[in-house]
Structure formats: C-alpha cells, structure tokens
C-alpha cells in the first residue's frame, strides 16, 4: 500500500507535495495515518513514509480531530488524502475544517489503484522518476556500501551494494589482496545525506604472507535492513601458498559507529 502512496504522490503537481503529504486510511475499525516526507537535498531525492495506527471503533468527529492534531500539529503538510470506506458520509465536519487550514484535502477510494498504475507505467516506460526519486520502504537498504581498494598505487572506491534494493536480496562477494596492516575499509554512505562512515575490519587471523600474496574472499550478506555480515575466507595464492581455510566474520551495524566482531 505505501509504495502505491509514494507513486501516486510523486505523480501529482509539485505544489501538492512541496512539503509533507499525509494519508488517512479508515477501514476495519482502525485509522492508518501515513506521513510522506522527501529529502530533496540529495540525488536522487529520498522519500520516507512514517505510519501510525489508531484504534477507531466508531465514527467520532471529535476523536478523529484529536488524532489528526496528534499526527499533524508539529508538521508542515502540503496536502492530505482521505481514503477508505469509513470516510463515507458527512460526519467529520470539524476535522475537515482543521485539515483544510493551509492544506489541500482530497477524499477518494482509488488512490492505491492509481498509484499502482503510475508505478507500472513508470517502470515500463523508463520514467525519469526512477532516477530522480527513491522510495526507501522498511525493506529497502538505506545506505550505499563500498570498499576502499588500492589500484596502481591509488586508493579508489569500489561499490558493493547500492541503497534502494531489498535488504534480503543483498548477496555480494569479491576477492581482494590484503596488506601487512590486515585492514579492510568498508565505506557506509547513508542515502539520507547524513555523511559517510568508515568501518575498519581487521583480518588478524589470516596467514602472514608476503605483500600481495594474501588473497581473501569477502562475502557480504544483509541479516536485516541495518545489520550486514562480512565473511572473510583465506583463498591462498596458487600452489605457492595453499589456502588454509581460515575464516572470520564481522557484523556491522549500518546505523551505529561501532562494529561488532566475531572470530
């Protein structure tokens, strides 16, 4: 449902989504209140949707008004959408007055359907929105992940996993040579634009070999939307230095400053 809300919103006129956009969905004795916010200071622009659920057993204008105040009083909202069978009738008069204060308010039952259609069209026709607007749902990876490599004496950034993909689909591996310092530098760059972070992994239990002769395999998998596991395996160096089978793993919290290491 929330991805449809995102696609519907980004296909509306700019003035409708200049600030935050709210959606109130009233069905099954509950109101789901969603707040869409977009950070346009990064490229692509990043959209997040916060959702809260309120028990709502009967049509009560005063209670609905209280919910809306809790949800929106501290926010600058450009437009509000009311969806669901519960909003049928003319019972929420005071709430509508509140919602219409400096906001555009719309009521209907086809927002999700239209949003899904917009998504299908955008993906099929290669709309520019795919490159300029990024929705980070709860299952989406919210950081770009890469590694610093030295190539021909120059340090370069090598991407591993891109933000915006489903975290449970993330499985990448690569072979690298480690130096005498036994350090592997993982670069974490939140797509929200809060700044990059460097996590240094130490492969201290790998064999002590000459420079450029200690080859390891790095396997990256996501255990959740915030926890990445890196597995380091000694691959040896041909017949000269056979693989020892040494393995170490390190779990990195993408949102924390410290990494939790397990050998």
Any overview of this molecule?
There is one protein chain. By secondary structure, the protein is α+β, with helices and mostly antiparallel strands. 18% of the residues lie in helices and 41% in strands. The strands form 3 sheets. A 6-stranded mixed β-sheet has the order 5-4-1-2-3-6, sandwiched between helices. Strands 9-12-13-14-15 form a 5-stranded antiparallel β-sheet, with no helix packed on it. The protein has a 4-stranded antiparallel β-sheet with strand order 8-7-10-11, with no helix packed on it. Helix 2 runs parallel beside helix 3 (93-99).
What's the topology here?
Elements: H1 2-10, E1 20-27, E2 30-39, E3 45-55, H2 61-72, E4 77-83, H3 93-99, E5 104-108, H4 111-125, H5 129-132, E6 133-135, E7 143-151, E8 154-161, E9 171-177, E10 183-190, E11 197-202, E12 215-222, E13 227-234, E14 247-253, E15 259-262
Parallel strand pairs: 1-4, 3-6, 4-5
Antiparallel strand pairs: 1-2, 2-3, 7-8, 7-10, 9-12, 10-11, 12-13, 13-14, 14-15
Helix pairs in contact: 1-4, 2-3
- Strand sequence of the main sheet, in spatial order? 5-4-1-2-3-6
Q: Counting H and I runs of at least 4 residues, what is the number of helices?
A: 5
Proportion of residues in extended strands:
35-45%
- Mean pLDDT over all positions: 89
In short:
By secondary structure, the protein is α+β, with helices and mostly antiparallel strands.
Protein traits:
elongated, 263 residues, five-stranded antiparallel sheet, single chain, 18% helix, disordered C terminus, 5 helices, alpha+beta
């Amino acid at each position: 449902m929330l991805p449809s809300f995102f696609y519907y919103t980004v296909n509306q006129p700019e003035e409708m989504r200049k600030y935050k956009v709210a959606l109130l969905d009233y069905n099954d004795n509950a109101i789901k209140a969603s707040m869409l916010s977009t950070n346009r200071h990064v490229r692509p622009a990043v959209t997040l949707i916060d959702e809260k659920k309120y028990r709502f057993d009967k049509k009560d204008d005063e209670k609905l008004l209280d919910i809306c105040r809790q949800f929106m009083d501290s926010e600058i909202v450009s437009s509000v959408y009311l969806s669901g069978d519960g909003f049928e009738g003319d019972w929420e008069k005071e709430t509508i007055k509140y919602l219409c204060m400096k906001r555009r308010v719309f009521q209907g039952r086809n927002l999700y359907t239209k949003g899904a259609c917009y998504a299908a069209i955008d993906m099929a026709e290669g709309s520019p929105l795919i490159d300029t607007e990024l929705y980070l749902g709860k299952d989406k990876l919210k950081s770009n992940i890469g590694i610093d490599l030295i190539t021909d004496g120059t340090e370069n950034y090598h991407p591993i996993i891109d933000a915006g993909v489903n975290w449970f689909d993330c499985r990448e591996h690569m072979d690298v040579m480690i130096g005498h310092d036994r350090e592997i530098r993982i670069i974490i760059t939140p797509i929200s634009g809060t700044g990059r972070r460097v996590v240094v992994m130490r492969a201290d239990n790998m064999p002590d070999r000459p420079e450029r002769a200690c080859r390891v395999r790095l396997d990256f998998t996501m255990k959740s939307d915030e926890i990445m596991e890196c597995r380091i395996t000694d691959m040896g160096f041909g017949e000269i230095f056979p693989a020892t089978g040494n393995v170490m793993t390190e779990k990195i919290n993408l949102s924390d400053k410290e990494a939790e290491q397990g050998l």
